[in-house]
Amino acid sequence: GDFPIETDTLVIGAGPGGYVAAIRAAQLGQKVTIVEKGSIGGVCLNVGCIPSKALISAGHRFHEAQHSEDMGIIAENVKLDFSKVQAFKDSVVAKLVGGVGSLLKGNKIEVVSGEAYFVDENNIRVLTETSSQTYTFKDCIIATGSTPIELPAFKYTKRVINSTGALALKEVPESLVVIGGGYIGTELGGAFANFGTKITILEGTDEILSAGFEKQMSAIVKKNLKKKGAEIVTKALAKGVEETDTGVTVTYEVKGEEKKVEADYVLVTVGRRPNTAEMGLEQVGIKTTDRGLIEIDKQCRTNIKNIYAIGDIVSGPPLAHKASYEGKIAAEAIAGQTSEIDYLAIPAVVFSEPELASVGYNEAEAKEAGIEAVASKFPFAANGRALSLNSTDGFVKLITRKEDGLVIGAQIAGTNASDMIAELGLAIEAGMTAEDIAMTIHAHPTLGEITMEAAEVALGTPIHIV
Ligand code: FAD
C-alpha cells in the first residue's frame, strides 16, 4: 500500500467554491490540500461564467458597431474574425486560471491533480491514470460542482451541444436552436444572435428566464432578442433530433401540434446535475437528496461532522458567487468561527441584453413570506446617463418593508444591472432603509441615480418623475 499524506483541510474541486475555501482555510492557519481532476478554476473559469462573458461582450461590440446609426455612426463592412474572438476568450480564461494557480501557490496550498474518492471519513484516495495516493485529513470540503444534464432524446454529439460545446464553436453558426430559455440558454443564444446567428429558443414553460425573474423583466429581454430576429417559442416540448453532416432538424410539440425546425446546431441548456455520484459518498454515509444534492447545515456541514459541502452540489442558486460565499463559511467553520449562511443578499444576474439582476425578495416572494411590502419603480428612460448611453430600456424596482422602509429586495432590468445590483445587496446586508439610499448622494449623471430615485419613489418624493 501507499503511505498516506497528511493534511488538515482537504478540498475536493478547484472551482469558485473550492479554491476560495482553500485560500480562506490557509489564511486561517490550516494546512490545505486541494484536489482537482480537471482544470483549476472549475466550470466558472473554464467553461462557464468567464468564457461566456467574453463571448457576450465581443458579440455586444460587434452588434453595436453595426447598429449605432441613430448616434451617427455608420460603420460599413464590419467584419468578424471569429477565431480571434475565440483567442480573446481563451486568453481571458488562461489569465484567470493562471492567476488562481498563483494564488493557491502564494497561500502555500498543495494542489493535487486527480480524481478524489472517499475511503472513509478521514481518508480519500486520489486516482490518476497511473497512480493512486491516499490523503488523510482532519476536515474535508467537497466542492465538486455540476455537469450539464443530457436529455435521452438529445445525446450530445458534434451538432447536439451543451454550453461547453457552444463556447468552443470554431465558427459562427448560421442558425442555432436553443432548448431551454434559462439564463445559460438566453445568454449564449443572445451572444450568437449578436454575431448574426438566427436563433430559435424552445422553452417549456410560458416564459424565458421564468426562474427568479418577473415577466416585466424577461419581456424586455424577449423584445430585444426578437429585434435581432430571434424566434422564441414558449410552452414548447422538444421531442427529438435528426442529425446530418451539415445540420440538425429538431422536432418539438407546441399546443398539441408537432413542428420541426432546422439549424446548424442545437444547444441543449436544460439544467445541470450535481457531481455527487461515483465519489464514494456512500462509503462515508453522507446524505444526499433524491436530486443528488448534499444536505448541509447553516455552516455548510454535512451529516458527517468533519465534512462540508459547498457550491452547485448543495441546494440554492447554482451560482459562482454563492459557491465562493459558502466556501469562506465552511473554512471559517472549520477554524471554529461562528459564520453562517444567509441567502437573502445573494444576487442573481443574467448577462442578457439588457442585463437582469435581482437580490432579496421580489414582490411575490415577499407576499409569500407574509411581509407587507412596497414596490417602488423608476425607469431608465427618465435618467440622463441612460439616455446618453442610448440604453433606455428597463427599470429599478425597490422592495421595502411597509412598516419601516427596510430594503428587503430589488430587481433591475437595464444596462449595467449586474453592477448596479451590488448597491442593493449592500443595503440589504447592512439593514438600510429606502431613506438611507435616497440620502446617499449619487454622482450625476450615472445609472446609480435610478436607484436613488426608486428610493425617493418609496418615500413619495421623487424629483424626476411625477
Ligand atoms: P465547479 O465550478 O463546477 O467546480 C467543480 C470542480 O470540481 C471541477 O473543476 C471538477 O473538475 C472538480 N471535480 C469534480 N469531481 C471531482 C473529484 N471527484 N475529484 C477531483 N475534482 C473533482 N455563475 C455565475 O455566478 N455567474 C455567471 O455568469 C455564470 N455563468 C455561467 C455560464 C455557463 C455557460 C455555465 C455552465 C455556468 C455559469 N455559471 C455562472 C455557474 C457557475 O459556473 C457555477 O455555479 C460554479 O462554477 C459552481 O462552482 P463550484 O465550485 O460549485 O463547482
Descriptive overview:
- Disulfide bonds join 44-49.
- Its main location: cytoplasm.
- It catalyses: N(6)-[(R)-dihydrolipoyl]-L-lysyl-[protein] + NAD(+) = N(6)-[(R)-lipoyl]-L-lysyl-[protein] + NADH + H(+).
- The chain has 466 residues and is an alpha/beta fold.
- Helix content is 32%, strand content 25%.
- The chain has 14 helices and 22 strands.
- It has helices at residues 18-27, 42-47, 49-66, 82-106, 163-167, 183-195, 215-227, 281-284, 320-334, 363-368, 384-388, 417-429, 434-439, 448-459, and strands spanning 5-12, 32-36, 110-113, 115-120, 123-127, 132-142, 146-148, 160-161, 175-179, 198-202, 231-233, 236-243, 248-254, 257-263, 265-268, 272-274, 307-309, 348-350, 356-360, 373-379, 395-401, 407-413.
- Strands 1, 2, 3, 4, 5, 6 and 17 form a 7-stranded mixed sheet that branches.
- A hairpin with a 4-residue loop joins β12 and β13.
- α1 (18-27) packs parallel to α9 and α3 (49-66) runs antiparallel to α4 (82-106).
- The protein binds flavin-adenine dinucleotide.
- Flavin-adenine dinucleotide (FAD) is lined by residues 12-18, 35-38, 42-44, 48-49, 52, 115-116, 143-146, 163, 184, 275, 279, 311-312, 318-321, 323, 351.
